[in-house]
Amino acid sequence: MKNILVPTDFTGTSNLALAWAKFIAQHYINDGHETTLVLAHVTQPFIPDTTLPTGEVGAGILAAQEMEDVGELNLQELAEQLEREGFATRIENRFGSIDDEIVEVADELQPDLIVMGRSHIDTFFDWLAGSSAADVAMTAHCPVLVVPTLEHGESHPVRLENIVYATQLEFDENHILRPVVQLARMFESKLRLVKIKALNQPNVYDDRQFLDQIEAEFGRERFVEDTVDADNVKEGLTKYNKTHQVDLLIMATRERDFLSKLLNPSLTKRMVLSSDIPVLVYHAKENY
Hints:
By secondary structure, the chain is of the alpha/beta class. It is 44% helix and 24% strand. It has a ten-stranded mixed β-sheet, sandwiched between helices. InterPro entries: Rossmann-like_a/b/a_fold, Universal_stress_UspA, UspA. This is Universal stress protein.
């Protein structure tokens, strides 16, 4: 793992994500890899209030420029701190929409992983608007780890002892499982394949067909295979994660057209927005 992109707004939420990025980077560094933490900050553009005099609009633009300069200084200070801790760093200071700019940085630098914090979601309007972290997780072309902030600014412990991969066992997932298995080996984690049997989920193929395919490539001893009955997948995964002390939930998302996204919001995005444990999102190649 050469580059880990870590967007930051210098808040507690971003600091929790940075702790996970450092944890992951350190393991790869200890294993002999050269891993760089790419720190990215985005200053959002000033939106003028048309009811204000023109001079006030100009003052707002100047304030936005000052905020961008402050962001640059904060990035430099954070990078220097990390370098004192032994990490290689790079900084990217951008101006624009947060999720768009983060995805653009990722497209330019091709990181192996993005690690983002997700603030605690309290209200219906938080759910309606979503979050930058969830949007990046759905649109970036590399894996995205979303670290949630719990109530009172707390977070899940930074560890990778138990990893769950949520599977439908309805299509070939071996290309996604390869990096998942590699991650579990690197951190000596217990890896669980969990299928939630719910009425609203497809169950066309015999599960054994895909389990045999997975075991043929990776070996039976690599996994614990669990099936959970639940009213819906979100409920089933949430209960499973709490009862099995899961440290990381891994999900795959597939590209869908605009109408599909509008009528049936992504299950992966819903878990990113609601999960109390970090969620790592991979992107499958198949389309709906």
